[in-house]
Amino acid sequence: MGAREQPLAPRWKMQGRSPQPSMELNRLLLLTSFLLHIKEDRASPTRLVCDNRLIQKYIMEAKDMETRVGQCQALPVLSCPAVLPLVDFTFQQWKSKLNETKRREILCDLALLVGAVVGAQGQVSEECGAKQLSQLYRHANSFFLLLQTFSWEGGHWEPSCSPHSMEQTHVTSIFLTYRQLVQGKLLFFFEDLAKVLCKQGQGDSKDPPYEAQ
Q1: Nearest-5° angle of CA 174, CA 177, CA 178?
Q2: CA separation (Å) from 35 to 5, 88, 148, 183?
């Protein structure tokens, strides 16, 4: 039962009891390669950022999770509401920010989102909903850990931010927020990084060169 709280457990999962082994294995292998690339090659994340197919894959999986949790029967209303980040933004405001500011803003959103998932897991015992929440936790927490390896400033990220938030009592709202975050801020952030890391010498950047912590 403790596996639900683990950010990533590739070997255990590959030997697990998924009712859709081929699809789950494909998703898990992609996620594993995503993180292993960061762990094994922390100083050179350019391949991960420059391959747009990876973030598009996660967008599709976010949509898939949102659809599947909507098909779960008898999802409870959360007696303790989920506190979710407000992830809407305007393109002009986003373009005016430095990449480090964007990274920290997304980290704040992810920290709040992961906390909301954990809170919902303690209230959802129905198998379908619990399974989707477990998968959502792994994906959101993986992005949370990943973005902490990107930094243009010294020191480690400190959870001192206070993102704009809202309370929701429907489990599906958590999945909607995650999908909007991946499809919005995360996608644009990766595209912004690609301009810096994948096209050397093209354009001007407000940020200093990337350094991995």
Answers
A1: 85
A2: 17, 27, 12, 20
